[in-house]
Amino acid sequence: MARVRGTGQERVLTDQLERAILPSPTASGQPDGVRVAVRYIAADRGLHVGGDWYVSAPLPDGDVLLSVGDASGHGIAATTAMTALRHATAGFAATGAPPEQILSGLNALLCGQARHELATAVVARFHPESGELTWSRAGHPPILLANRDGVAPLDQPDGAILGVWPEARYEAAHRYLAPGDVVLLYTDGFVERPGHTVDEGVQELGRQVGSALAEGPGEGVTRMVGQLRRCNPRDDACALAAAVSDPPG
Question: Which of 43, 114, 240, 244 is paired with 35 by a 20 to 30 Å CA distance?
Fold first, then answer.
């Protein structure tokens, strides 16, 4: 009986630690200007977190930070790297740094470590008043945009995988979004399918997004991310959807 109680207490403690490492994106409410929903599937069935991460947070300058990333590997090592990168992303963004500088900071962080860890990421800042989305990527799949014209990948600015070259430089891209537009940031667990290319996986993911959003209003982005299908059960998968609201004021 004592062993059962101990196991139960350990599970409660583990759950609390996992929520602290990767809290709900709406734990402190929805950011102004967007409605956010997240789907997270860890490769390890015994855990709620893995090497993938997401960040959705209002910033001091009024922008909204949207980011997902994927630290290489699995287990505790990947979770440790993910935690450091997630907090660093939020910290750099809070200083007002644009997405390309945030990725440069993350790259320097990984290149300065002795463990030779790698990661991919996409980082975006959304300005609710103007509707401008600015984003950069580091070896990461493209953001998907769903609007009245359909679902399509956004531009893919140049950017190397994090942790490879200390001198790597990252580019930025821009797009103005309208109320009702939905952007989807995701990790390769939703697009890397054995026997298929990543481009084919992105196309299939786009079809899933379009079908889910076509079902009508209501809990649109929440329902949509809940219907996304992971491609590989041995890989973590994370998706963050943000639906643009009417501008404040």
Answer: 43
Distance CA 128, CA 7 (A): 46
Among residues 7, 4, 36, the alpha carbon closest in space to that of 23 is found at 36
Binning the chain into helix, strand and coil, the percentages to the nearest 5 are 30, 25, 40
Task: Check whether 241 has a pLDDT greater than 50.
Answer: yes
Rounded-to-integer distance, Cα 53 and Cα 74, Å? 13
Q: Is 218 left (phi over 0), alpha (psi -120 to 50) or beta?
A: left
DSSP lists the bridge partners of residue 146 as 151, 182
Q: What does the alpha-carbon distance between residue 118 and residue 122 come to, in Å, rounded to a whole number?
A: 14
Q: Which domains does the chain have, with CATH numbers?
A: 2-244 (3.60.40.10)
Banded model confidence at residue 11, pLDDT cuts 50, 70, 90:
very low
pTM: 0.88
Q: Per-residue confidence at 235, pLDDT binned at 50, 70, 90?
A: confident
Contact call for residues 182 and 161 (beta carbons, < 8 A): no
